[in-house]
Predict the structure.
Amino acid sequence: MLIETMTMPEFAEHLKISRTVVVPVGSVEEHGPHLPLSTDTIHAYEVSRQACEKTGAFLVPPIHYGICRSTGQHPGTISISGDTLRSLLKDIGLSLYRQGLRNFIFLSGHAGGTHTAAMLEAGEFLLEQFSGIKVASLNILELGLKGWIPIIETQDDSHAGELETSVMMVLRPDWVKGKASREVPSFPRGILVKDKRKYWPGGVWGDPTKASPEKGTLCLEAVVKAMMELIEKIEKWEE
Ligand SMILES: [Zn+2]
């Protein structure tokens, strides 16, 4: 159920049916020369929407910005700090808890390590702070990977590659501008570099030439199924 379309009485009524809420988190981040900057937000939101519509869980509007470290210098990336992301998730979580929600799922379309860690910290904070609360916090790669392995050919495909291009060909076909070539970044292991574009010029991690709408449809089916299973699991979860 989409909170953004609900009225006050509809919200109150739906609380009798569900105490579960999904908070999609995205990014405004370069996705190669061919995918829109909002790819992660669209991906997380659409997967959450389909799963919430099928399970009856609440869906709140997405947090459209995330922490983008290695793409921060590429044109179009607009990043926020870890403090801001943690604060947003804590504040939204607190407000939703006051509204009666108890099972929280933070699903990110952006899989960056610093971003994922900040989400986990906010989740742990809420878990510590409130009684009767259950929290799941994960990115879409963690959620979907098992189901995507038989579909996606490119090993370690992770950013604007075969998977994300295939998915966007289904979700926003008009926003996919051609195809980009295969690329793997060459960051030195363990050393932080100032000039990130030098080591990752095209902003692609994977192989978009292998993308197709057919693969996109299969990948979406698999990840929506995984999301529905997670919603059921957290609702039944007892420590
Ligand atoms: Zn992405």
The pocket of zinc ion is lined by residues 31, 39-40, 110, 159, 164 (CB under 6 Å).
